[in-house]
TrEMBL record:
Record's keyword annotation contains Hydrolase: yes
Coiled-coil positions: none
InterPro entries: BXL (IPR044993), GH (IPR017853), Glyco_hydro_3_C (IPR002772), Glyco_hydro_3_C_sf (IPR036881), Glyco_hydro_3_N_sf (IPR036962)
Keywords of this entry: Glycosidase, Hydrolase
Gene coding for it: Xyl2
Protein name: XYL2 arabinofuranosidase
Superkingdom of source: Eukaryota
Organism listed in the record: Anhinga rufa
Keyword Iron-sulfur annotated: no
Gene3D superfamilies in the record: Glycoside hydrolase family 3 C-terminal domain, Glycoside hydrolase, family 3, N-terminal domain
Gene Ontology BP term (one): arabinan catabolic process
UniProt domain Glycoside hydrolase family 3 C-terminal: residue ranges: 103-226
UniProt-recorded Gene Ontology molecular function terms: alpha-L-arabinofuranosidase activity; xylan 1,4-beta-xylosidase activity
SUPFAM superfamilies per UniProt: (Trans)glycosidases, Beta-D-glucan exohydrolase, C-terminal domain
Amino acid sequence: MLGHHYTRTFLETAIASMNAGCNLELSYGMRNNVFMHIPQALVMGNITLQMLRDRVRPLFYTRMRLGEFDPPAMNPYSTLNLSAVQSPEHRNLSLEAAVKSFVLLKNVRGTLPLRARDLPGKRLAVVGPFADNPRVLFGDYAPVPEPRYIYTPRRGLETLPANVSFAAGCREPWCQQYSRAEVVGAAGAADVVVVCLGTGTDVETEAKDRRDLALPGHQLELLQDAVQ
């Protein structure tokens, strides 16, 4: 109604949503939400009681499976804490999921993977605004992470047997203030350069769209300086 103007009133919106199969409203705490008009739609005959029951049933089935109506002592989820969520098993599973979700666009001359046995004595530079900034590594709607479990590219690469140097070039994803000398100095003295670029929630999130897909600010310039 407000953004796409598909409907004109909250009542009309409630009726269209229910008939389309929607059973949950994401509201902003207003007392006069869209789905508060369902009783009126029911009285008017625009929706049926059976339709309302069909919409509600999966919601409460899910809540029951989660134990929301049980005493806390009966709910196994209520005893979970960080030690369970961040157990070694779960962390290893997260690592496996990350490794298996990588998309490798090119691998010129078999540069990747970097093997620890090949790195002793090598100089490795990690550069870019995403190289060592934990705050920008998490997407929109991501949970608040536990800092001690965050491995930035720099922190991860420093676990390898190599001489690792670091240069952000620009401190934030918008990359408006760029230090070319910092990047060129680190990259020019390295055998291997890892460039960490992107957007992150500073640049794009829900309701924060962009006009193009180009790297923001001076990030493309940073990349060119790092690889020349």
